[in-house]
Write a structure and sequence with these properties.
Layout lengths: L7 H19 L8 H6 L23 H8 L5 H15 L5
């Protein structure tokens, strides 16, 4: 086998692949995704994850700095926007 030089990222990847193969040989994986299983899976949210209250997708234009600040708060920022708007409307007496 020829001597192959790898950068640090590629070396980590190669080691991870080798470890995955060792785990598979030891039978440490609970399930293996066969092509049939992958094709049979449905796209979208998993079954049973439908909320009682549905939300309506919309487009909204926000200032760049406002959007950046909201996204910086991490995952769930759209839900937090919804909660903030709901609280504001409730305080204004427009939503009960």
């Amino acid at each position: 086998m020829p001597d192959v030089k790898m950068d640090a990222e590629m070396l980590v990847f190669a080691n991870d692949v080798a470890e995955s193969i060792r785990q598979a040989k030891r039978g440490e994986f609970a399930s293996v995704h066969t092509p049939e299983v992958i094709v049979a899976r449905r796209r979208g949210r998993p079954a049973g994850s439908v909320q009682a209250v549905t939300k309506e997708p919309i487009k909204i234009r926000l200032d760049t700095d406002v959007l950046a600040a909201l996204r910086a708060t991490g995952d769930g920022w759209q839900t937090r926007i919804n909660d903030t708007l709901r609280a504001s409307l409730h305080l204004a007496g427009r939503l009960v």
